[in-house]
Amino acid sequence: MRRQPQQARSKAMVERIIEAGRAVLMRDGYEGFSTNRVAGEAGISPGSLYQYFPDKAAIVSAVVDRHSDAVAERVAAALADRIGDAGPGMIRATTAALLGALGADVEVLRVVMEELPAARNRDRRTALERRVRELVTAYLAARPGATRSVDHTTTAWVLVMAIEHLTVRYVLDRPDIARDAFLDEVVALCGGYLGIPTLP
């Protein structure tokens, strides 16, 4: 951002621009995104927009940051709530939270995964994955009776990458698989990897 808003009016203007940016990104995609379209959507002049955001990339970054933060917060909350659960319930709850977070803003997710230049989005995705991976590592270290290697960092990386890829593709591709059936399969996959019994 060009300048950080201090007054309530300025903060409201920034919120308006970011919300307009999200609407344009969802409607027109990354290629159709422009500062003029965002200004029009927000009902302000391009000059007012440029007081806060220098270009298209800055607005897109703000929209995607909001999306990434929302996803991270929901997954982190689900993990934190189940940190003492040594069974498949933690896997299911965390995957369900990720599905819910990704499904809440499908078009922004599609833009992030399929339209944004990979280099522009890499740091943001890495930060999100690191945040979740640290929580998974803490869970693995805390759970009793672990039967796999004590290299919890490596195990966490494999789990986070697998669950992230599967859930993103499930949300974007909409396969003919019921949500509960999908969750059952993820629990079975991760439970097998961790040596956790997944059947009652």
Give a summary of the structure in a few sentences.
By secondary structure, the protein is mainly alpha-helical.
Give structural attributes.
200 residues, 9 helices, mainly alpha, elongated, single chain
Count of beta strands: 0
Low-confidence stretches: none
Multimeric state: single chain
Strand content: under 5%
Order of helix and strand elements from N to C terminus:
HHHHHHHHH
State the distance separating the first and last CA atoms: 52 Å
Please tell me the overall pLDDT: 83
Identify the overall geometry.
Answer: elongated
Portion of residues within helices: over 70%
Count up the helices: 9
Structural category is mainly alpha
- Major sheet description: none
**Rg (CA only):** 20 Å
